[in-house]
Amino acid sequence: MHIQRLYTMMTCCVLLSTLSYANTCPKWFPMPALDGLVVVIPIYNAAITAPDLDCDELVDLVDPDIDGDGVANVNDVFPTDPSEWADSDGDGVGNNADKPRIKLLTPASGTTNASATANLSVKYSSFDTAISKIAGKKVQIFLEDGTVHTDFDVNIMQVSLSGGDTVTVNPNAHLSYGKKHYVHIDAGAFKDSTGEQNEGIQTNTRWSFTVESGSGACGYDCLDNCDLPANLQ
């Protein structure tokens, strides 16, 4: 079925061929075609009309917001995805799908000579704003045999935030020399002002490391004397 209406085109003097494209919208709409000085707008059936992703009856070729998400194509990193429009960290995944994930662990998982006295830190990606701590959520450090070394509510001073995306944990005791440790962090322990929450760590292998050998057999309950010779601990 072809219904044609003619419009006078005042400025065009270039002869362009009639265009037709596939369209998935379940309705009919006009597709402009230029023929000399006359604009012919046929209404085709859905099988041969031009693409209109958001089905707003403005074909994608001339639609300033192809996916209809309210963000103009020129400002939309994902102009054909109505669920995404920004990619703050430039990783190719839109902000809505790119939930805050662990970007860097210090010491790295698998480390075999981690410091017994250094703090632990987690850097996250894709938080939209600076993060805050959520009371009642925990960070825990275990020895390989399951013995609890550190069990903190994150809302205490030994758990600090910096740079809007980094969490630092200062254990209440030096880590055990020569021993393997693993860390758990509750999901939702940290969130930003938009409600985005951190990825949790709840497996014993996601963040595990072995502490350096020391001069003495400093246990997990040692405090400031871990740096002393074994006979003085």
CATH architecture of the domain at 101-232: Sandwich
Strand order of the largest sheet: 4-5-10-9
Task: Report the β-strand fraction as a percent range.
Answer: 25-35%
Q: Figure out the total of helices.
A: 0
**Helix content, binned percent:** under 10%
| Rounded mean pLDDT score | 76
User: What is the rounded distance between the termini?
Assistant: 93 Å
Name of the level-1 CATH class of the domain at 101-232: Mainly Beta
**Morphology call:** elongated
Alpha-beta content class: mainly beta
Structure summary, number of beta strands: 13
Instruction: Specify Rg, calculated over alpha carbons.
Output: 30 Å
What is the CATH fold-level name of the domain at 101-232?
Answer: Immunoglobulin-like
The succession of helices and strands, N to C, reads: EEEEEEEEEEEEE
Could you list the spans in which at least 5 consecutive residues all have pLDDT below 50? 1-22, 27-31, 36-48, 216-233
**Sheet with the most strands, sense and barrel status:** 4 strands, antiparallel
